[in-house]
Design goal:
alpha/beta; Rossmann fold; 7-stranded mixed β-sheet; two-stranded antiparallel sheet; 9 strands
Amino acid sequence: MLHSELIPAIDPHSRRLMVMLHGLGDSLEGFRWLPEALRLPTLNYLLVNAPDDYYGGFSWFDLNNPIPGVERSRKLLFALLDDLRAKDFPPGLITLGGFSQGCLMTVDVGLSYPHRLAGLIGISGWVLDPEKLIRELPAAGRQQRLLMTHGTADPLIPIAKVRAQIPILKAAGIDVTWQEFAKEHTIAGAPEITLIRDFVRAGYPA
């Protein structure tokens, strides 16, 4: 079971939920600022720690041998989403997002999960194996909305690698929004936050 913390919406009756997955070496503390930044009063937030200890933080998988960790973390995140369903957070009201390693897990889990979510947000990350992911895509995977953002000056995950993966996802019929920012391995302040806020809102039609 993954350790997580729920930050409730200002509206106590709302079942809208954003699940955020941190990057390598970070923790759920790394996204505690997000509710104030997004200013979406009907949105609950679930901040999640990755399963493995990593130099004072946590990791979703081993960078040198990612497949076993990705598969294990996928199962844990599937279980988390199933548990949320049981707690009356319907998949269609859940936005799944992540940064760096958390981005990879967001895309992997979001496109593999058998229920359509409100939206997927991947920030400064990549797709482990887009061709394999598409071959195994469930019907719900082709209905997902995906926002991918990346920095043109990212020194850790070169943008060219990720940029080349986007047409593969689009060719499979996935609704992908791709946005580049003049940033490094981070979130590009107000412009990127505004894009994320608008994407989240669009997943919850009135």
